[in-house]
Amino acid sequence: FTLIELLIVIAIIGVLSAVVLAALSDSRSKGKDASIKASLKSAQSQANNLYYNRNAYIHSYTNVCVNGDVDGEKGIGSLVLAAAKVAGLNDYNINPVSPGGTGVTATCNNGTQNWAVEVPLSGSTALVPRMWCVDGTGKSKETSVSIGTLRICP
Length: 154
Description:
This protein is an alpha+beta fold. It is 40% helix and 16% strand. The protein is built from 2 helices and 7 strands, in the order αββαβββββ. It has helices at residues 3-53, 77-86, and strands spanning 69-70, 73-74, 93-94, 107-110, 115-120, 131-135, 140-143. The strands form 2 sheets. It has a 5-stranded mixed sheet, covered by helices on one side. It has a two-stranded antiparallel ribbon with strand order 1-2. α1 (3-53) packs antiparallel against α2 (77-86). The longest helix has 51 residues, at 3-53. The radius of gyration is 21 Å and the shape is elongated.
């Protein structure tokens, strides 16, 4: 082989590897988003279980966002935290006093009759938020509007 032929082969390999790496990056983002959605879907099921089966305050979502036991049932905090960690966060906010929700924070709001959770998806920023939101009404959707202090998905 001549030097030119070797350089052409190396250039072709470089272009092909760049295409493969770009495709893998997109797949990782989609995988992370799927994991966030699955965790929050499980949180919906667990919240309904708590609503109907807790020992005290039956038919109430009070403290559903807790990471631990709530009146003999498991809160959804561990599932929200798992989704937040997939999103690259270390924690989530429970019932923030301020409007909260910056597009880069995870939030869980609960009250007696309803609750809502949001976690940022891949590529979410404060300027262009991409949040996955689930709530006690059964909604499960992507939104660009934060729940803030609301207990339902916008």
